């Protein structure tokens, strides 16, 4: 716990680096999670995402076509639904085209 408090102390000084602030933010989240945890459940510390890991993931997805990305996202969301939940199929959009004559045209 002392190292978390020290991380927060070093993050709030006026000339703190971006890395020190990120470490302080992660320490604050860990302390908040510990305070919010139920006594009957094990404590799992919060983990701040690593910026380089996020950049690597985005780089890996850079060449994937948008349609395939949407299919992956929809599949993951459907897998996260509870068992027995029926998702209605989406109806395609229908647009009515109205032809408007140009002004001044005879």
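^ Assign residues to that structure.
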């Amino acid at each position: 716990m002392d190292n978390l408090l020290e991380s927060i102390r070093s993050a709030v000084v006026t000339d703190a680096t971006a890395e020190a602030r990120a470490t302080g933010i992660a320490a604050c989240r860990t302390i908040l999670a510990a305070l919010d945890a139920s006594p009957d459940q094990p404590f799992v510390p919060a983990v701040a995402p690593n910026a380089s890991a996020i950049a690597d993931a985005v780089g890996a997805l850079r060449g994937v076509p948008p349609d395939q990305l949407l299919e992956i996202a929809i599949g993951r969301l459907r897998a996260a639904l509870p068992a027995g939940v029926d998702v209605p199929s989406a109806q395609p959009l229908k647009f009515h085209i109205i032809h408007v004559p140009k002004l001044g045209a005879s």
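The chain is about 50% helix and 0% strand.
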